[in-house]
Design a protein that fits this description.
The protein has about 160 residues and is mostly helical. The protein is built from seven helices and two strands; from the N terminus they run αααββαααα.
Length: about 160
C-alpha cells in the first residue's frame, strides 16, 4: 500500500515537473501536432478524422448545432484570443509596457499591422474586369491572413 502511494506521488511530481518546463511541454505539444498532421493525411486514417470532424454536436434549447470541427476551431480561437488578451493586459499594467513611452512603438506597430493588411487590396492592380477591391477585405483582416492565401491556393 505504501509503494502505491509513493508511486502516485512520484508520478504527480513528474507530471508537475513536465508541465512547469516550457521546453518539455512545448516538445510534447509539437509531437502531438505532428502526429495529428500525419494521421490526418494518411489514407488509412483520414476518413476517421473526417467522420469525427463532421459529427454534429448540439446544445439543447439553443440554435447551436455545429460539427465537432467547428466547435474545435471556435474553442481554440477563443482560448488563443483570451490568452493574448490576458498577456496584453498584464504587460500594459505591470509589465514592460506599463510605461507609455515604452509602449508607444509596439502600439504603433500594432496599428500598422491592422492598417497595412486592410489597404492591401486597394494597392493591388485589378486583374479581373468588374471586380471590387473590397472583395478580399475579410481575408486581409483575418488574424491569419498570411496563411489563408496559401491554404486557399490563391495568389
Amino acid at each position: 500500500m505504501a509503494t502505491t502511494a509513493g508511486a502516485k506521488k512520484g508520478l504527480w511530481s513528474t507530471i508537475r515537473r513536465i508541465a512547469a518546463s516550457d521546453r518539455i511541454s512545448g516538445l510534447i505539444m509539437l509531437g502531438f501536432a505532428l502526429t495529428g498532421l500525419v494521421l490526418a493525411n494518411l489514407p488509412a486514417t483520414a476518413h476517421a478524422f473526417e467522420t469525427v470532424a463532421e459529427t454534429h454536436l448540439f446544445i439543447p434549447y439553443t440554435n447551436l448545432d455545429l460539427p465537432i470541427g467547428h466547435w474545435a476551431q471556435d474553442g481554440l480561437l477563443t482560448i488563443v484570443f483570451l490568452t493574448v488578451g490576458l498577456e496584453l493586459k498584464q504587460e500594459l499594467t505591470t509589465g514592460s509596457l506599463a510605461n507609455p513611452k515604452a509602449a508607444a512603438v509596439p502600439m504603433l506597430c500594432a496599428v500598422g499591422g491592422m492598417i497595412a493588411p486592410a489597404t492591401r487590396p486597394y494597392c493591388q492592380p485589378q486583374t479581373k474586369p468588374h471586380s471590387s477591391a473590397g472583395m478580399c477585405m475579410g481575408l486581409s483582416m483575418a488574424p491569419n491572413w498570411g496563411i489563408c492565401p496559401v491554404k486557399n491556393g490563391s495568389r
